[in-house]
């Protein structure tokens, strides 16, 4: 009996598993329909058009009692008793979790929502509060006797299948903030369950017993034994139990997208298209609640026994038809029920994913059990925290999860995805390198992924087909990818035609010429298009520049007020003649005009004499005068000629500015060509540098 019991415990410790399925793979944005088991919100706004999982299996092994070197353990001469590391305590634990994902698929309903249908088969076994000293007692080769003071313990296992329907939807997509949520409803079919719960249990085994050929044992305490059928009976044939229920998963994912504009295409109408083949976030945070639900075993049995008895023969235990038969024969049945419910391993999942680039990411994930350890009829996951750096692309991903697992401690693994194949382990590195491995796992699967492709642009005009009004004809972005037309047939394309519905000349931007002032002169030839005028004056009204009521077209003196009788000119006024004396006076004044040396600018002190000249000229308003500049012979002839002209011009400009009509004045420079005396003396040169104002006859 001792060896049988020890063998059973060894077996359980080897197959026991952890909490999370597919460690590492589920962090991948390309895990597709498989990701619903971690967070149902994952399937919408994904990198898939559709994803079909053919089959996948995840099996994890671990405990907190035995630690081994996996490579050594595979050797034929490995002895668990001698070579394994043992960590006995009053509360050793084992949890088994096998997750098989069957045919499943997901697809997009529209750009904001997605649907998935999935199938799974799962097995969970929890063994809690086992006294590690019990295993030591069973493993003591110095005696066949052993004593077990187990106190309270709980062993519970169940297997079930589920068919789930997941709906996920984008809840918010505003600039850099993005939120989506998802809900999975699961129909549960129980495949079998059983549990044993002990209170204050002790067992004292005597190998010699009451008969030297067989052992016997004494026991105390209370034992609750539940099972879906008498599966330990030799005549038992498995039948699917009448057991079903419902489960719910709920999850949300938030993404921070600081560069969201880089992943959005927009056409001229403002229609936007988000690039579906790219991850857009810098930080992604997910939270989910999974496995809310239970399974009702309508034909199950639950019996409570007082197992206080002495001298129970080991042969009676070995020869019993099944456990129920043995318990009913040797112990007192205190309570019995015809059905029971089992609870799913409800858990909270928190996940944060940071994108260093489009290829490199790091993920932090925490799975927290929300069911109490040792709770009757209730499965429980092991708490786990994982940090997973990964390389990720459409057809290939590689990840290295580093985890701390309840009962197992630290473990390191590796996994990869290559198109339809995904395979990995959350503990392969630590299992191969550590002498104290308490956990090992492996997963593998096949799928048919159909990824989102980059948006097509068949006409290569820079406008993607989704936003291109003419996807087969190249055209500018401003016209939504269509070539510009010419609706009015005036040879001016509509994008340059101000009047695309009316033919018009190029000169008027494609619009017909109008006649805004209705003067029968079209605006293109109308000099005054806003004021009615005569055709003879280019469409402008005739002006009266001098305001003498004689229009300029009839006014022979348009700048002088005149009379109608004199054709707009002033009546002639007799004025005195310019006498020789007046001429001499003008030249006398002119000779005193001073200029800056070598320049044509008039010195300020000459203004007085110039004003005298203005007064004289104004006395003879009809007389015309020539202002003549002269120089001495010092310097080049060309320079003197230029200087004489400039000085004559400066004097004329001054006179005009003081009110002398420009029509009465002219100027000329003679340079050194007309001296009035010799240039061989300073005095002669000074006389020759002069300005003369002469009457033009």
UniProtKB/TrEMBL annotation:
It is found in: Cell outer membrane. Coiled coil: none annotated. GO terms for cellular component: cell outer membrane. The keyword Ion transport does not apply. Gene3D superfamilies: OmpA-like domain, TSP type-3 repeat. Residues 582-697 form the OmpA-like domain. PROSITE patterns: OMPA_2. Its main location: membrane. Residues 1-19 form the signal peptide. GO terms for molecular function: calcium ion binding. Keywords: Cell outer membrane, Cell projection, Cilium, Flagellum, Membrane, Signal. SUPFAM superfamilies: OmpA-like, TSP type-3 repeat. This is Flagellar motor protein MotB.
